[in-house]
Write the C-alpha cells for this entry.
Amino acid sequence: MHRRLMLGFALLAGVAAGTVEAQTPPIRVRGTVASFADGVLNVNSRDGQKLEIMLPDAVAVGTLKKVELSAITPGSFIGTATRVAADGTQTAIEVFVFPEAMRGTGEGHHPWDLEPGSMMTNGTVKGEVTGTAGHELSIAYKDGDTKVIVPPGIPIVTPAPASRADLKPGAPVFVVVKKDEAGKMTAAAVRVGTNGVAPPM
C-alpha cells in the first residue's frame, strides 16, 4: 500500500485511540460529499451542518473494501466499534481488519463517538467462539482484554486505495479534521465510500 495512504489510515486509527495530538483533539466528521474543487471539500455532515474542509495535497484519500468474517482469525489485528449493554456485553457495530503493516496502531479500548455510549477496541484476536447471537471474539490489547460479539450482517472492512476523483457529490465520507483558532478546518485524513461500501466507523 502507498506509504502516504498508510500514514493516513494510521492517523485515523490513532484518533480512535485518542493518541493523536491530545492537546488539540482532531474532530471526526461523518457525512456525504457536497462538492470538491480546488482543494476544498464541502461536506454535508450527519448532524446537518455544511462544512468547508481544506484538503492539503499531502493528505491521501483512502477507501474501504468488504471482507468476510473468515478473514478474521486468531492473530488478526482488528479495530471494532461496539455498543455496550447494561450487563457489559459488547456487540460490534463494525469491524476494521488492519493490514499486517499497521499492526499495533491505536491499540487499546476507548470511548468512541459512532453512537452514544459506543466504544472502540483495537487489538489482537486471541480466539473465536460461534454462538447463537453471532461469533464471539476474544481481543487482547495492552493493559487488558475483552470479548466482542460480532452479529451477522455488520460491516467488516479493510483499507484500500482511492483517489480525489472518488470525492464525488453524494459519496459518504469519514474525515479527521483539525480546526485552528479561527475555526478553519483542515483534513488530516480522508476515507471515502466507493463501490457501495460506506465508511462504517
In short: The two ends are 21 Å apart (CA to CA). Confidence is low (pLDDT under 50) at residues 15-22. DSSP finds one helix and 13 strands in the chain. The helical segments are 3-16.
